[in-house]
Amino acid sequence: MPEPAAALASVRVDRPSEGVVVLHVSGELDASSAEELAKPLRTALVDGVLGVVVDLDGVRFLGSAGLEALVTGSKRAGELGVPLVLVAAGRAVLRPIEATGLSAVFTVVPTLDEALTRV
Which pTM does this prediction carry? Predict the structure, then answer.
């Protein structure tokens, strides 16, 4: 029997400094669980935010619905004029981003420390 969607992906929200939001994502982002990322990303991308980091280091699978949530977030960040930086070093995340050509759209860095210097 498949696991419930909530068990497939989870997001922990951190605010390391004023106006900066970090979403620590873990698990699998597919059609049944992408909303686990999309909802907190929408919540984070509001007027007054200075930057958003999406830490994908804990993601084991990134499907098209997860990519769509990131693209939607990137568009909203652009509308607000704030940086959205992805943290990704593993193949499970980098491969779909590169294969879809989204590496030209997203700012992707290998570490959270580096991402925080860019927001």
Answer: 0.93
